[in-house]
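User: Some background: our group keeps a shared notebook of sequences we're curious about, and every so often someone picks one and asks for a predicted structure to add to the entry. Today it's my turn. The entry only has the sequence so far, pasted here. Could you supply the structure so I can complete it?
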Amino acid sequence: MSAEVGDKAPDFTLPTDSWEREVSLDDFTKDGPVVLFFYPGDWSSVCTDQMEVIQDRLPEFERRNARVVAVSVDSPWSHDAWAHSRELTVPLLSDFHREVAEKYGVLRKEGFAERAYFVIGGDGDIRAKKVEEAPARSPEIEAVLEDLDRVL
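Assistant: Of course. Here's the predicted structure to add to the notebook entry:
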């Protein structure tokens, strides 16, 4: 099963930087649109480059009143260490049990998430979606912003 444009985004509650701190999709969409990024894992060079670009461009998302959230199958401890080492403020959510990636249709058979993004409106509907052809390819940030602008 795969989440598609026009569908209600599958809801979730996931830990952030500790097992005790959880957030849900509703925590983010109540304030407006959300760009939900899935990425394979912390610490890899491609994921690090991708998150650093997103971090650098956060003001452009904020000007559009959009929240950015990133999800991988890594543990909250890994997210916390990686975020501190790279000075990331983007919320990193732990899909350690791989349930959310599966709900969104981006779980690879190897057990990690595809590199993908979903633009979710404040109403919880999926407005745009892109799944990269290969884990080594990151979405172009300009394309993400264009999708966001198109659906606002």
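Suggested note for the entry: The chain has one domain: 13-151. Residues 12 and 24 are 5 Å apart (CA to CA).
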